[in-house]
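A reminder from the course coordinator: this example appears on the midterm review sheet, so study it carefully.

Given structure:
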């Protein structure tokens, strides 16, 4: 087995991830109910599906589980996703700020700085370019699950510390935005993440190919 195959092969998804996802999805549903028409996120609105972002090992395992499921239930769809992921890595791998052989982001100051401008215009390989649908929506990373509604940034306080999709909440007051805040269970995510052996952060393209590398 190659170094890349060994490193990208995954472990089991922790059982508590189901609890985490349920809590986050319920929080999203409540925030959407509060926001009403201010929250314009819909399938086909793909602005947030462009640009690389870091995901942790729990996110990567969740995506791996989704791809393993699709390889059995919908092999043609899984193959299409893998094709896009391989094309993404072929195009952007040379500039990957980390170890491209294992898909792990670097942690040095220089590598973190390089990541700030890395693949910012690239479509996520999970995005179906024809439908605007996320083909792994059920198993998407936490960053994707909380994007859209107001969420608290960097443990800040007050309405100024809330960030949301720039396409949403046009015309809403600061108080109105604050009423729609989505509570993110960072503590639970940290607890579940602590249950697994971390390999460092990666990006979606590498996670989609876990257990699917020849």
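Designed residues:
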């Amino acid at each position: 087995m190659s170094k890349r195959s060994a490193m990208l092969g995954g472990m089991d998804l922790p059982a508590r991830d189901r609890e985490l996802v349920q809590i986050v999805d319920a929080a999203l549903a409540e925030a959407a109910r509060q926001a009403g028409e201010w929250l314009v996120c819909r399938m086909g609105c793909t602005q947030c599906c462009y640009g690389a972002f870091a995901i942790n090992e729990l996110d990567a395992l969740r995506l791996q589980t989704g791809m393993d499921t699709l390889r059995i239930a919908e092999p043609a769809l899984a193959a299409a996703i893998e094709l896009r992921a391989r094309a993404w890595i072929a195009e952007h791998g040379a500039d990957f700020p980390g170890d491209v052989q294992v898909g792990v982001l670097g942690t040095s100051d220089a590598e973190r700085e390089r990541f700030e401008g890395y693949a910012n215009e690239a479509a996520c390989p999970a995005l179906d370019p024809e439908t605007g649908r996320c083909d792994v929506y059920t198993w998407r990373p936490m960053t994707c699950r909380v994007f859209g509604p107001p969420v608290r940034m960097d443990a800040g306080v007050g309405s100024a510390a809330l960030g949301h999709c720039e396409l949403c909440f046009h015309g809403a007051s600061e108080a109105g935005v604050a009423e729609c805040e989505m509570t993110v269970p960072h503590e639970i995510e940290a607890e579940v993440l602590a249950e697994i052996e971390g390999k460092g952060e990666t990006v979606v393209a590498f996670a989609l190919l876990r257990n699917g590398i020849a």
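The two ends are 9 Å apart (CA to CA). Confidence is low (pLDDT under 50) at residues 1-8.
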